[in-house]
Amino acid sequence: MSRSWGYVRRNPLLLVGVAMFILLLLFWLIGPQVIDVTRARPISAMADQRPSAEMPLGSDSVGRELLPNLLVGSLYTFEIGLTAGLIGLVVGTILGFIAGYFGGVIDSFISTAADVALTIPALAVLVVIASVIKEVLNVRNLALIVAALSWMRPARTIRSQVLSMRERSYVEIARLSGMNDWQIIVQELLPNLLPYLAATLVGAVAGALLAAIGLEAMGLGPQTEPTLGMTIFWCNYYGALLRGMWWWWAPPIVAILYVFAALFAISSGLDELANPRLRRAR
Amino acid sequence: MSSRYIVRRVLLFLLVIWVGTSLIFFLPRLAPDRDPVAQRLGNLAATGGINTEGLDEMVEAYRAKFGLDQPLWKQYLNYMFDMLRFDFNYSIAMYPATVFEIVMRAVPWTVGLLLVSTLLAFAIGSLVGALLGWPRTPRVMHWVATPFLMMSSVPYYILGLVMMYVFAFKFKWLPLGGGSQYGTVPTLTWQYVWDVVHHAILPAASMVVAGVGFWALSMRGMMVTTLGEDYVMLAEARGLSPRRIFFRYAMRNAILPQTTGLALSAGTILSGSLLVEVIFRYPGMGSVLYRAITGFDYFMIYGVVFFVILAVGAATLLLDLIYPLLDPRIRYSRK
Amino acid sequence: MSAPVLQVRNLCVHYETDAGPVKAAENVTFDLARSERMGLVGESGSGKSTTVLALLRMVTPPGRIRGGQVLLDGADLMALSPEQMRRMRGSAISLIPQAAMNSLNPVMRVRDHFYDTILAHDRTMSRAQLAAHTGELVEAVGLRPNVLRMYPHELSGGMKQRVCIAMGICLRPKVIIADEPTSALDVVVQRQVMETLGRIQRQLEASIILVGHDMGLMAQFVDKIGIMYAGRLVELGPVTEVFGLPLHPYTRLLINTLPSLDAKAVFKGIPGQTPSLLNAPAGCAFHERCPDAVGDCWKAQHVLTEVLPGRWVACPCHAGAAA
């Protein structure tokens, strides 16, 4: 216990990242109590209003009040990122495990599939799918579409970790003591993989967010929900920047920067945990 | 060079093109009752939309090509055949221009912007990352680099928006967008070249700033791993100068996985640059794609997406073929 | 005997950890005469590798050299500037690494490794001189000149180790440190490599410090042997005398672990465990495993003292007995 505390103290980045997330959670929890989220819908406020006492972040050109817009949007955006990232992690981990543990033909098949899928630019494929079903695109559908192309990196990471672990002595001992493959995977490998899984999850969420926000910025997002990416799309669409409406475009950008900074802090913290050699570099 | 390696890489390239092209054919068809192109064309015909000129011809061409009454495998074969001939039909929004013509006009802009900014980001980022992983580097360097590292995961276009506001809107040092002064004719004069460079600075800078952090971060990790290698330790014991060890032993080896990383990231980088183009209204493929999406120009979407897949596949192949020149273990693989 | 080429005095290396300093080498003191072969043995973790790294001033953080002197021909290496020390490495005092190590830069040809080493110390050599010199070196270690054009991954383990030996002698160093140069090689290759090393050492009249834990190899190769235990030198003396009459109980146990050919004895380990260097026990570090420990041993640290001419030991019971 005291040792892990000592570690956290020397690794303030992880602490900062977690603190940033707790702050965000508080915003999402307390926000709806004090902010009327229904005002995130169009024509609920006067259009194009600067920030004022009643509307702390003003309103946009279609009459959304922007503070509730930010609250709802950031929550939706994170929901998309987390859902897609989790699905990607689970699918990728299973595939990576199978490939790394059993090897052979299965491994070559999964590895090649992952390599091919990584080389095909995800955004391109997503654009085609999303543009076809644009009218029925909602938060859940977008998350599923993004998830479909989020499994490759987790699969690769976990595969290489499993490959290196498979050769270690404790796996050999477990096998000699009569454990079967699944017991070894669940009891021996999985616990040792936890730091990597955590780091991979953070990476997968960041990747999914990147893809989702990118799609939305092209207009391929939930047309009626004010996610962060869609807000940027509408800003671009209505020329918010050129019209000097900083209160419209700045909040989603700050929110995106904030989320990515928090993810970055957590992932570098976890990286050090997973690769102790990095620790010495500082 | 081992021919097996080359053959493998070329096969992988072909596989990528084939799988990618097939994916964008089949995936949209999984959505039930959706034939957006027919719908779109139908809508246009019914409402006499913005551009009815040549509509009949397009509907005709579309029917003939995609012939939705035909069995799926036949549709698929027709589609693949057209794609491989770069025949993507007309642009729905810009008839009678074909998709191919429009894409070809956009390609040089995208390639120019992308190549310059990616190479710059890769070179600067790798050097910075190598220095960050090197124990003798002064502490100041870490302080200077931290903001860049923080920005490594931020999408390029988000940074682009901020830079656009500061440098183009607020201080008016640089143009707000576009590829050149509106209405200028491309000529090989200094004036025109300067105009193009002038317009490219902001979009390129937003990609370089984010990219430097990304490459520095991965290079730092590689560098730390490489510095732990025995040959680096022995190089010091042999009395080599730190400078020599840094470049010839540590960085030279750390750059190998970094190059693989570049190949793996080609898709992400290109996707990012397309969005930067959208934000800056840069006349490349990104803007074409954006207009196609907002204008329901499906032929155009397919054309651009196919080119994007092709470009990323080709870039990856090129890097894979360069790699053996950097790594003798692959160049002279034991039989 | 002429003046020693290398004098090590009270060398201390500590690793700073959260739980306190780990004393990896403590008050290590010995002399090395010109063209003498000295062995340094001990279990892994006994501080022998740390000690030789400290001789090269290549201990990396969290390790630090906390004190002591290393005099090479009378000049203190610890007082040199980093750049002066760099010039010493490879030219006056060189390292031949463990054979299991990945010691050659995978993207450089063998030849360029030699050129790098030589040019780091002598920029005046012409291309032709470099080529000629390198050719001779490779021949001297029994390799064919075509290895120079190869990349490290094309060489076998034994070949790589010969390259490392050739590189270790290319600037005619006065002291060669060979850190388990034959571990991980098979027995036949091991023998060939050691013969090469011995021949080269005689030709150059260089002194050599052979680090290892193979007592049999030591008995055949070195003139003088130092035994390390828990970061300290516990016994030092001519190899035949130490093997004939070990003075420290640890040395005795170590020699007894050697399997002899006639007695098909089971290989006997030494009972007990190597003590943690962190929170090292007070008194003699060996007392918990020592068959001859007496009342005082857990209180006071024994100092390495010369009990017979040329024989040094850090144990009081045998100091008295031998005298």
- Large-scale geometry of chain B: globular
* Structural class category of chain C: alpha/beta
- Our count of helices of chain C gives 10
CATH first level of the domain at 108-284 in chain B: Mainly Alpha
Side by side, the strands of the main sheet of chain C go 6-7-8-3-9-10-12-11
Q: What amount of the residues of chain B lies in strands?
A: under 5%
Strand proportion of chain C, as a percent range, falls in 15-25%
In total, how many beta strands of chain B?
A: 0
Distance between the termini of chain B: 12 Å
Order of helices and strands of chain B: HHHHHHHHHHHHH
Give the uncertain stretches of chain C in residue-range form: 262-267
Helix content of chain B: over 70%
CATH topology (fold) name of the domain at 108-284 in chain B: MetI-like fold
Question: For the largest interface in this structure, which chains are involved and how many residues does each contribute?
Answer: A-B, 49 and 61 residues
| Mean pLDDT figure of chain C | 82
Average pLDDT for all residues of chain B: 83
Task: Furnish the topology, listing elements before pairings.
The complex is a heterotrimer of chains A (282), B (335) and C (323).
Chain A: H1 2-10, H2 12-34, H3 66-102, H4 104-119, H5 122-132, H6 139-147, H7 152-166, H8 169-176, H9 181-217, H10 228-237, H11 246-274, H12 276-281
Chain B: H1 3-30, H2 36-47, H3 55-66, H4 72-84, H5 99-133, H6 139-150, H7 156-170, H8 190-227, H9 230-237, H10 242-280, H11 285-294, H12 298-326, H13 328-331
Helix pairs in contact in B: 1-12, 2-3, 5-8, 5-10, 6-8, 7-8, 7-10, 8-10, 9-10, 10-11, 10-12, 11-12
Chain C: E1 6-17, E2 20-32, E3 37-41, H1 48-55, E4 63-72, E5 75-76, H2 82-88, E6 93-96, H3 110-119, H4 127-140, H5 157-169, E7 175-179, H6 187-204, E8 207-212, H7 215-221, E9 224-229, E10 232-238, H8 239-244, H9 249-256, E11 305-308, E12 311-313, H10 316-322
Parallel strand pairs in C: 3-8, 3-9, 6-7, 7-8
Antiparallel strand pairs in C: 1-2, 1-4, 4-5, 9-10, 10-12, 11-12
